[in-house]
Amino acid sequence: MVDKVLMKGNEAIAEAAIKAGCRYFFGYPITPQNALPEYMSKRLPEVGGVFLQAESEVAASNMVYGAAGAGARVLTSSSSPGISLKMEGISYIAGAELPAVIVNIMRGGPGLGGIQPSQADYFQATKGGGHGDYRLAVLAPSSVQEAVDLTIDAFDIADRYRNPVMILGDGMIGQMMEPVEFKQEIDPADLPLKEWATDGARGRKPNIINSLFLDPQKLEDHVMKLEDKYKQMKANEVRYELYKMDDAELAVVAYGTTARISISAVDMARKKGIKAGLIRPISLFPFPEKVINETAEQVVNFLTVEMSTGQMVEDVRLAVNGEKPVYFYGRTGGMVPSPEEILAEIEKIGGVKR
Amino acid sequence: MKIVAAYPESLTDKEFHYCPGCTHGIIHRLVAEVIDELGVRKDTIGVAPVGCAVLAYDYFNCDMHEASHGRAPAVATGIKRVHQDKVVFTYQGDGDLASIGTAEIVHAANRGELISTVFVNNAIYGMTGGQMAPTTLDKQKTTTSPYGRDKGLAGNPIKISEMLAVLDGPAYIARVSVHDPKHIRQAKKAIQKAFQVQLEGKGFATVEVLSSCPTNWGMSPVQALKWLAENMLDVYPLGVFKEVD
Ligand SMILES: Cc1ncc(C[n+]2csc(CCOP(=O)(O)OP(=O)(O)O)c2C)c(N)n1
Ligand code: SF4
């Protein structure tokens, strides 16, 4: 059996990246994710990797763009305002079809916002964020162990689709301590060679990493190729977890930290005789729309809970497609909903047959 | 038979899209000749800018990476950190390097990043149609300084080589020009040196190359070279600003 170690979310994600064979990190300090780059600055030199504190998030994301083009597994992390700055690089990385992993440990916004946990970057993460027709694969852990597992998977997904992948956490996931185990360890030397990478044109024609297509027909063709990848992701990469959904009449839909809290609320509701359950999207893009749509035949109501004024709820509504009412409860600005608050919402709408 | 002049292997056979008389073409050729002479074409990764040289990835016959506007030094940093045994260079205009990309160039230089930068200063934004650049001369007319650049309003021509030379990271900083054959020969030597210090692991290098933009300066190619010699050399004196043994 693998030993469990007690780790903070931010550090566990960093170690998971190393276990995934990532040896390059470029970033810029911002609360509440500082423990991640700090951990990398200590660990990467030990494994022959490179930690570089960039002059800004703009530079950091462009360093990632360079390193990813050069064929490396590479990570950057930040929190909301920093992610906004990284969007330039992210759009280019997506446009040039490069694999990279970006961690967003969300804090309250807009603007400088605050430093407490938030989920208000859902739109930015799942609907593009940067300019152009592209998507990130977005994975949202709700425990430290899951953050570890998803980080390792993120590198595989990034390589498989040659597309950036975002780990979307929040200040709570980043800072809480839980026991974790690292089930695998990848030696970067064992990773398959990326024949498209810029590593010197020896014995082959030069490789070009590029996202410029001046001919609109060529650009449309390129974008349609990207679109095909996103369709494949929708077919193959949807992840979610169901909790007490077998006989549920009310489906709470929540991700990340909010999903954890919602589990307590669901249990409290069950004790009161309300048949509540939880659908927890793990992949936010691709969004688990099918299971939500199918659940509409079973339940009476949906309640989406988020640490925002309502972002994912739009995707839930699209999935439910008007078949059942979709309610929303959210706290924002760094305020975390309590199980009691969520229970109160469940009680307000629960059991009401329509 | 000894070949004294041939088409550089480090250039592809794609025809340049540059305007007639534009000195970007000359500078491309110099860079390619240097790569050939150092014998490093298959170990070189170039980073193209956003600017008239955006398609440089089609012209240099080595691995190329097209950067976002001004970020070539950051992209090059990412590449070089992964492939420390390769030669990495950036090719950037003055809007790219001296305006939107000042943070990236200053910090790459300051880190002593082992990359070589070819910085083409034509005192204007060529690609977007002749707007004022930070390098535009005082009183120079451009499409966004139609009354002539006004120092009080728009600041002063920015002297990148002088600025970078005060940092400890760079191993070689020089300003050259390509307005006549003699200066072209000197420019090539400087570019050679900029690659050489990288190969020797000495530090960061930039060669600022004064270049012409006949199209947006509204001049014939010959007039443009004359204008460069008569107006730019005073503001941007040529020379080596930093050289580490
Ligand atoms: C982020 C961003 N801002 C602006 C532009 C538009 N743009 C393209 S090239 C350019 C200026 C290029 O000028 P310079 O670097 O001097 O190169 P030149 O064309 O003169 O060779 C600008 C502003 C862009 N492509 N991306
Ligand atoms: S616009 Fe100016 S810099 Fe650009 S190719 Fe034409 S002459 Fe050269």
Précis, in short:
By secondary structure, chain A is α/β, with parallel strands linked by helices.
Give the CATH architecture of the largest domain in chain A: 3-Layer(aba) Sandwich
Largest sheet entry of chain A: 7 strands, mixed
Mean pLDDT score of chain B, rounded?
97
The CATH superfamily of the largest domain in chain A is known as Thiamin diphosphate (ThDP)-binding fold, Pyr/PP domains
Using the coordinates shown, work out and report the CATH topology of chain B. Answer: Rossmann fold
Strand order of the largest sheet of chain A: 3-2-4-5-7-6-13
Query: What's the average pLDDT of chain A?
Result: 97
Structural class estimated from helices and strands of chain A: alpha/beta
Assigned CATH architecture of chain B: 3-Layer(aba) Sandwich
Beta-strand residue percentage of chain A? 15-25%
CATH homology group of chain B: Thiamin diphosphate (ThDP)-binding fold, Pyr/PP domains
Keywords (chain B): Oxidoreductase
Pfam families (chain B): TPP_enzyme_C
Domain Thiamine pyrophosphate enzyme TPP-binding (chain B): 59-209
Protein name (chain B): 2-oxoglutarate oxidoreductase
Written description of the protein model:
Chain B: This is 2-oxoglutarate oxidoreductase. Chain B: GO terms for molecular function: oxidoreductase activity, acting on the aldehyde or oxo group of donors, iron-sulfur protein as acceptor; thiamine pyrophosphate binding. Chain B: Keywords: Oxidoreductase. The complex is a heterodimer of chains A (354) and B (245). With 354 residues, chain A is α/β, with parallel strands linked by helices. In chain A, 41% of the residues lie in helices and 19% in strands. Chain A has 2 domains: 3-198 and 207-235, Rossmann fold, CATH 3.40.50.970; 239-349, 3-Layer(aba) Sandwich (Rossmann fold). Chain A has helices at 9-19, 35-46, 57-69, 80-95, 122-126, 144-161, 171-175, 216-236, 256-271, 289-295, 312-320, 339-349; strands at 5-8, 24-27, 50-53, 74-78, 100-106, 137-139, 164-170, 177-180, 208-209, 240-243, 250-253, 276-281, 283-285, 301-306, 326-330. Chain A starts with a strand and ends in a 5-residue tail after the last helix. Helix content of chain B is 38%, strand content 17%. Chain B contains 10 helices and 7 strands. Chain B has helices spanning 24-38, 56-59, 72-82, 94-100, 102-110, 151-154, 160-165, 181-199, 214-217, 221-235, and strands spanning 44-48, 63-66, 87-93, 116-121, 170-177, 204-210, 239-243. A 7-stranded mixed sheet of chain B has the order 2-1-3-4-6-5-7, sandwiched between helices. The longest helix of chain B has 19 residues, at 181-199. The radius of gyration of chain B is 17 Å and the shape is globular. The model of chain B has no long low-confidence stretch (mean pLDDT 97). Chain A binds chain B through residues 24, 26, 50, 52, 54-56, 58-60, 62-72, 74, 88-89, 92, 96, 198-202, 206-212, and chain B through 41-45, 47, 54-55, 57-58, 60-68, 71, 74-83, 86, 103-104, 106-107. Iron/sulfur cluster binds next to α9 of chain B.
